[in-house]
């Protein structure tokens, strides 16, 4: 059996389409905002990973969101570029269509709530009016593209008969993909499987569309619900890198893809994902957003292939399959970690970047990262892979408003900490000095004098990139302002410099978030 799809042509029944919503649903998480340059870099990485559909944003939400979708549609090849819109929002769909004009393959994804709870209290609409808007939204979307997706928001809590009517209406008026989200993470795997089985059996025209599943992780069931949906007949999964997303997040792309690959004996399904790139894309997202992956995170956590137990170590040494169900290399981990030193040149550094998955960084980012690498190599005897990743990820950010130039610290047991700081704000060089209750406090006070703001420090955390006393510090800073939360990350062999970089990264993200307005009812 195969599906005919306007963007993919004939799609065999063992093919699973990967729909990544990191740049839309994932970015709705508190603190996860990205600027245009960061979104573009992430979109190129997702396309290189082999993602079939990239949901780039919600164009009507703000001028920034519109421009992000437009730029990604124009500049990113290899993936279908998707824009979100509300089924009842004519302006939404117009904005989505306009933003996608230059996409080689574009998709409009329109949605509306269908559960009794949402229709009564959120939409305040009768079911018949919802059906009218489904018809209108899909017809209008088809004026811009043949690739139209429709979602039943809170679909897992929608009455079965009404859900069937909604899906039939969407298909009849032009939808080519039907998505049933578990919007609030309420469903269980058997329930999600049953929903897709029912729709495929009961809805006229179900054999002419691809069914999609979008699961939130409020009860920790997002990946399980996604796999069960596939067993019910869904052939598109909506997911995010590292499982980021609203509240407890979404189903994690890397976990689903590797579950399908590792348990091909059970599912018999395939994706187009280049799995050795999973780790580098995960780390790119973590560095961009300032949110580290927890150590025990499946697939991409730093402990995912670590073995401390003596029994486990003995077993792995005798045969890796005793305690590893997949190879570290299959998802991008490199067994060789000592690679570079102070005598390494540009060619060796470039080769290492390629080996780590950084194949398309621009010349300016490469030059800045190489300069910091040489500085770090002068301080450390050896530079590890994780050191290199930290350097490149940080230099790849777009500090387009605020940037650290230099920091000098004086302190100790006999003197108050004193910091001299140089930083640019919108290209203007500012030089300040400040004292504080310790070097980090002095650095943060100096930043506040150079760039006055009302944000308060909500979290300050210091870790290390690698092991040893010469390890780079990796610092996370969380700022809070008027209900907004942003996290920033910085890395440096000097902990105070690392902290200053993290604070400035958070400030840049806060400036992006100030410009964004969230439209009502945006979820899915």
Automatic annotation (TrEMBL):
InterPro entries: 2-IPM_HCS-like, 2-isopropylmalate_synth_dimer, AIPM/Hcit_synth_CS, Aldolase_TIM, LeuA/HCS_post-cat, LeuA_allosteric_dom_sf, LeuA_bact_synth, PYR_CT. The keyword Metal-binding applies. Homodimer. Keywords: Amino-acid biosynthesis, Branched-chain amino acid biosynthesis, Cytoplasm, Leucine biosynthesis, Manganese, Metal-binding, Transferase. PANTHER family: 2-ISOPROPYLMALATE SYNTHASE 1, CHLOROPLASTIC-RELATED, HOMOCITRATE SYNTHASE-RELATED. The keyword Zinc does not apply. It catalyses: 3-methyl-2-oxobutanoate + acetyl-CoA + H2O = (2S)-2-isopropylmalate + CoA + H(+). SMART domains: LeuA_dimer. Its EC number is 2.3.3.13. Catalyzes the condensation of the acetyl group of acetyl-CoA with 3-methyl-2-oxobutanoate (2-ketoisovalerate) to form 3-carboxy-3-hydroxy-4-methylpentanoate (2-isopropylmalate). Its cofactor is Mn(2+). Pathway: Amino-acid biosynthesis; L-leucine biosynthesis; L-leucine from 3-methyl-2-oxobutanoate: step 1/4. Belongs to the alpha-IPM synthase/homocitrate synthase family. LeuA type 1 subfamily. Residues 16-279 form the Pyruvate carboxyltransferase domain. Pfam families: HCS_D2, HMGL-like, LeuA_dimer. This is 2-isopropylmalate synthase. It comes from Saccharibacter floricola DSM 15669. Residues 403-524 are annotated as: Regulatory domain. Mn(2+) binds at residues 25, 214, 216, 250.
